[in-house]
């Protein structure tokens, strides 16, 4: 009988088509640096040869000079955030000097570096989406250095959620990046967010998912004879196929057992194959392990607990074996094909002496450990990891498995681990740690704190869950003073983000009523006024503006609570249309030497982004665009530097776009707003930030004259009633009404503008720039109801003069001129030009100049208006000016 042992190549039987497909994409990758990337997904049940195909991919790629990075998911490692992406990238990064790594990753070093384990995390929670984008950028930059680059990921069904999030995002960028990614996974085995990520990865594949099939009877016979010798008879070969179902791994293992037992491969012995097959897996494997003795069994159990980076020394410590006994056990487990030497091609985060021959064996060994012992061994493993200096986060996967036992120290470790996870952008891992800490349970004096920390961990990903945690925490003792105020504010923010505005207001109002006068109460009052100011309900709280004005009048801006009240008072006064100069001067008192005060920055958590958006919005609509642009640009820089690329960055781009729109830089505005909408889509539809991006983009497209495109954006993104419960700048009803008029739905447009009129009146909002419904409604009614149109225009002018900005007065004069004829229309239009020429809003100036040129038949003003329109990117206005110039030339001739 032949002594040839089965090898990994046995799993490549009947894989010619798959190997040909892999060869083709590798050749395409190597052909040119400008070649597009590719993604292949191999799917099949355990043992069908996925790992062997990945090994063959490596062989083919390396033959052609490719760089190959590999990683593998692990069943017991799914809770370790960034585990697999670290396996992929760390070998390339740790070989660099720190200065080199920083140079390659550039601005992303401080964002993605902590997730990759090559940099210390910062002192605030990392934004998960920003970290994901940083990891995408890291691979893009490394790919340019290491072209042609091949990434292989095995057992993707066991890959941690954070890596899957990165991989699904990275897969979308492969079209312009010469990288080949090959992913192998089993069908099923995942749920929830991981399922969505794996589906997205499969959808991004250029080629259909390759589904691996079992060996056919002829292939099983060929493999049997190649292993046992040509004398293996047909009946024996058929039984090998029948017993294993054609599974390549099981076939290889069964044939190894046949060799070990020196069974003659003839029909007479075919009946013994089933017993041999049972001994190679499941309960048979466990029985075989027990036959090796208690020490070998304990060694195998300890290796299964560790899961990865298995070293003899670590296993010995966990299994309480001396070094020599551990070495003997390792050799015994190698000889029985339970453990083997690690594959040097697989990326690892630490040293390793051993790995399991197959994940099926690792799973069987792990599941064979008695439950109580398994939990105790995880506790010992956690201590070993912690004592080695790798930190609570590294130990957390073991801590999660320890049996609850009212252990105060375990609660502390889990809280520390949660903090470390949040610092690298893994809130789900932090959530798991804190939920497990609650099972311990914590001591009564810290229980509320753990709930509060859990609420903070779920804030970005599950606001509804956050609400429950924080409400429970506030109902317990243990949260006092500033900590309690922080929890109340965070609860109100979660309610706001969950579209429960009225409850958010009531929450802070009730807590403020419990406190004595002082900074804490003032902070809660400021938050209450802030939420009320953002609330777009049918009416405002009676006397709110008066109460806010009276409270703000006592403030000098000496601390951030007072500064917050001054911001809120300024925003309220702006929305109500009070004198803009006074409003802006009061807002300036908030700044310290023209800058935001410490603790009141865009990334500071105490107050949140809404307050600063109110401050900047006040400047936008009081013609202080220099201040507004400075604030919005600072927000954008702050979020990009901090790696916050979720909702915060979406809002920053939206308001940078708003500033461009008000300034008249319409092309730049559209670019910023499209980026904002792209980011907002990723965060979720229906949220206030989504409305802000959509509303501003529709408004910008309309003033550019791109009416059809504005309508398409509105339809695609649901820009229609019902409107959000928070204030959006500019007023969405006014923008929607303008859109309906522009597409010829005049009656619907009038109805929408009348609804805007009613909503503004009920809230006492009379700012004629933010709420521009009156101008469009007056123009729309000019023919069918000229008397009402005239009344609207007069009221519009009155409000504009009360507000007092050049933009407001100039726009009101434009409206008045549109309703007049003859010399009066010309005089009004001329006055509009005079005001808007002094305004920072260049589009409105261009429109006024063109309208005056038409009324006065002034070629000079038309030409100047045309130049302004072109510089703004107002294509529709430019076309109108060009047409009028042609007509004027014709009349002159």
From TrEMBL:
One of its GO terms (molecular function) is ATP binding. Pfam families: AAA_16. InterPro entries: AAA_16, P-loop_NTPase, TPR-like_helical_dom_sf. Residues 14-182 form the Orc1-like AAA ATPase domain. Keywords: ATP-binding, Nucleotide-binding. PANTHER family: TESTICULAR SOLUBLE ADENYLYL CYCLASE, TRANSCRIPTIONAL ACTIVATOR DOMAIN. This is ATP-binding protein. It comes from Streptomyces chlorus.
């Amino acid at each position: 009988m032949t002594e040839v042992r089965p090898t990994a190549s046995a799993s490549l039987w009947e894989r010619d088509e798959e190997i040909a497909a892999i060869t083709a994409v590798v050749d395409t990758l190597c052909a040119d640096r400008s070649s597009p990337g590719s993604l292949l997904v191999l799917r099949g049940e355990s043992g069908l040869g996925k790992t062997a195909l990945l090994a063959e991919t490596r062989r083919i790629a390396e033959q052609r000079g490719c760089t190959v990075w590999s990683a593998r998911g692990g069943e017991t490692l799914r809770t370790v955030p960034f585990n697999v992406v670290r396996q992929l990238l760390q070998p390339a990064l740790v070989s660099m000097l720190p200065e080199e790594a920083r140079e390659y990753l550039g601005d992303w070093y401080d964002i993605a570096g902590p997730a990759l384990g090559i940099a210390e995390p910062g002192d605030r929670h990392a934004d998960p989406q920003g970290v994901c984008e940083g990891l995408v950028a890291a691979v893009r930059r490394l790919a340019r250095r290491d072209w042609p680059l091949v990434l292989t990921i095995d057992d993707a069904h066991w890959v941690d959620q954070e890596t899957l999030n990165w991989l699904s995002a990275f897969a979308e960028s492969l079209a312009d990046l010469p990288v080949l990614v090959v992913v192998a996974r089993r069908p099923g085995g995942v749920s929830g967010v991981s399922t969505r990520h794996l589906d997205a990865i499969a959808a991004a594949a250029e080629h259909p998912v390759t589904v691996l099939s079992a060996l056919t009877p002829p292939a099983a016979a060929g493999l049997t004879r190649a292993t046992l010798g040509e004398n293996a008879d047909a009946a024996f070969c058929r039984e090998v196929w029948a017993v294993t179902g054609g599974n390549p791994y099981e076939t290889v293992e069964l044939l190894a057992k046949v060799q070990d037992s020196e069974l003659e491969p003839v029909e007479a012995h075919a009946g013994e194959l089933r017993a041999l097959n049972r001994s190679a897996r499941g309960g048979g494997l466990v029985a075989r392990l027990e036959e090796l003795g208690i020490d070998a069994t304990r060694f195998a159990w300890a290796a299964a607990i560790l899961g990865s980076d298995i070293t003899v020394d670590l296993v010995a410590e966990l299994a309480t074996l001396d070094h020599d006994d551990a070495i003997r056990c390792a050799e015994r487990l190698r000889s029985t094909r339970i453990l083997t030497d690690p594959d040097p091609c697989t990326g690892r985060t630490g040293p390793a002496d051993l790995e399991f021959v197959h994940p099926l064996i690792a799973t069987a060994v792990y599941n064979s450990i008695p439950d109580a012992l398994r939990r105790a061994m995880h506790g010992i493993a956690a201590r070993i990891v912690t004592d080695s200096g790798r930190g609570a986060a590294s130990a957390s996967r073991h801590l999660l498995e320890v049996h609850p036992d009212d252990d105060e120290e375990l609660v502390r470790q889990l809280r520390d681990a949660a903090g470390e996870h949040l610092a690298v952008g893994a809130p789900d891992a932090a959530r798991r740690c804190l939920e497990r800490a609650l099972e311990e349970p914590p001591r009564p004096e810290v229980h509320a704190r753990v709930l509060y920390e859990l609420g903070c961990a779920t804030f970005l990903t599950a606001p509804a869950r956050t609400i429950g945690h924080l409400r429970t925490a506030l109902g317990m003792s243990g949260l006092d003073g500033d900590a309690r105020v922080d929890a109340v504010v965070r609860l109100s923010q979660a309610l706001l983000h969950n579209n429960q505005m009225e409850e958010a207001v009531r929450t802070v109002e009730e807590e403020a009523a419990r406190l004595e006068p002082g900074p804490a109460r003032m902070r809660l009052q400021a938050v209450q006024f802030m939420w009320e100011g953002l609330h777009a309900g049918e009416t405002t709280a009676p006397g709110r503006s008066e109460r806010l004005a009276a409270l703000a009048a006592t403030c000098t801006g000496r601390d951030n609570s007072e500064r917050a009240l001054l911001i809120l008072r300024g925003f309220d006064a702006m929305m109500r249309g009070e004198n803009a100069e006074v409003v802006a001067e009061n807002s300036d008192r908030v700044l310290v030497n023209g800058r935001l005060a410490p603790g009141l920055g865009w990334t500071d958590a105490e107050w949140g982004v809404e307050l600063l958006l109110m401050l900047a919005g006040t400047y936008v609509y009081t013609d202080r665009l220099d201040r507004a642009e400075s604030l919005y640009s600072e927000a954008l820089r702050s979020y990009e530097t901090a790696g916050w690329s979720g909702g915060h960055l979406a809002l920053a781009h939206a308001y940078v776009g708003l500033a461009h729109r008000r300034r008249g830089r319409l092309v730049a505005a559209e670019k910023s707003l499209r980026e904002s909408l792209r980011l907002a889509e990723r965060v979720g539809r229906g949220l206030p930030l989504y409305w802000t991006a959509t509303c501003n983009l529709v408004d910008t497209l309309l003033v550019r004259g791109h009416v059809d495109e504005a309508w398409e954006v509105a339809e695609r993104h649901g820009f229609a009633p019902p409107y959000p419960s928070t204030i959006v700048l500019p007023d969405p009803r006014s923008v929607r009404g303008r859109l309906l008029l522009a597409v010829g739905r005049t009656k619907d447009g009038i109805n929408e503008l009348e609804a805007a009129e009613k909503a503004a009146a009920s809230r006492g909002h009379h700012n004629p720039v933010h709420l521009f419904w009156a101008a469009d409604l007056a123009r729309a009614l000019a023919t069918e109801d000229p008397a009402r149109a005239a009344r609207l225009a007069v009221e519009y002018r009155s409000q504009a003069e009360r507000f007092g900005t050049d933009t407001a007065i100039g726009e009101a004069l434009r409206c008045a001129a549109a309703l007049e004829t003859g010399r009066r229309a010309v005089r009004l239009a001329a006055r509009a030009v005079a005001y808007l020429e002094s305004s920072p809003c260049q589009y409105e100036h261009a429109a006024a100049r063109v309208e005056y040129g038409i009324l006065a038949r002034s070629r000079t003003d038309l030409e100047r208006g045309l130049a302004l329109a072109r510089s703004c990117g107002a294509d529709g206005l430019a076309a109108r000016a060009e047409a009028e110039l042609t007509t004027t030339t014709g009349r002159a001739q």
